[in-house]
């Protein structure tokens, strides 16, 4: 069994991040955690999500890259906790605590190691039960800028040459190999598409509307989802039907219009109104890499004896009735924050 340094001050040191392209600044945090706690827990945020421009790597891929920063001795002291995005600070904090406590039961002293980079580091203040250990920044690095190089540079040699001074050797080797996979080309195309999107649409915020429809047939509940078309950002991912609100259009009207355009689902207006069970505004600043998109979402429970016929149209490839019990298998395939939308209305995430 690996042994921690004799001068470690805490039973456990925790570090939290998205690690969406691990760099030397992250290695500084990891090294400090190893020097602080006899055991180290690395929390990997934004886990279980579909890939997008802000979260191109799965949590398993990020765990593997972080693991290249460890020698064989230290690797035995480090454990990893994947945590999903809830877009709800209270639930997220509970999930982080539960994940850490499951691995550290009986530990008397826990330290939270981190450095305050900007407003995104506010989460460090949400764990008063853990002793804060702040780290001075040795490297002025930004994972967003490094992702821009990795996915935006067209010359492979130049890409790696620019990254080399800022990324640990093992991570660089991992990225170099990963870039040979088809998924890299997909991510690079979407990275460029999101960049061009943000250059074109520059308002502080835009309004969208989504409509989640449920039918119950033969004792089973079904939800209507759509698969995004090949030209859309998030191509191939599943989503709640929806789209942008037109100028002067109410949110409800936009949601119903998009539902009809994307799926062909056109019940009587009175039936749809009678089926409206809930509505919620999703406005978290990080819900979409495309920019600040605020969505008015509506949940309709239509009862029903049989599933209505549907078809994918407009900018979607397919419309599908998905049995509600199958939703967990779709979590990592859902567009942007649509897993959180489904969780809000029908419950998708495990209870914390």
Please characterize this protein's 3D structure:
With 352 residues, the protein is α/β, with parallel strands linked by helices. The chain has 2 domains: 10-142, Rossmann fold, CATH 3.40.50.620; 206-346, Nucleoside Triphosphate Pyrophosphohydrolase (Alpha-Beta Complex), CATH 3.90.79. It is 33% helix and 24% strand. The strands form 2 sheets. Strands 6, 7, 8, 9, 10, 11 and 12 form a 7-stranded mixed beta sheet that branches. The relative contact order is 0.13.
The residue fraction in helices comes out at: 25-40%
Return the structural class.
alpha/beta
End-to-end distance, in Å?
Answer: 32 Å
Give the CATH superfamily of the largest domain.
Nucleoside Triphosphate Pyrophosphohydrolase
**Helical stretch tally:** 11
- Main pleated sheet: 7 strands, mixed
How would you summarize this macromolecular structure in one to three sentences?
This protein is an alpha/beta fold.
Please render the helix and strand layout as text.
Elements: E1 10-17, H1 24-36, E2 37-47, H2 59-67, H3 72-75, E3 78-84, H4 89-103, E4 110-114, E5 131-134, H5 143-152, H6 156-163, H7 169-178, H8 182-200, E6 206-217, E7 220-228, E8 238-239, E9 242-244, H9 251-263, H10 269-275, E10 276-282, E11 293-301, E12 316-323, H11 338-346
Parallel strand pairs: 1-2, 1-4, 2-3, 4-5, 6-11
Antiparallel strand pairs: 6-7, 6-9, 7-8, 7-12, 10-11
Helix pairs in contact: 5-6, 5-8
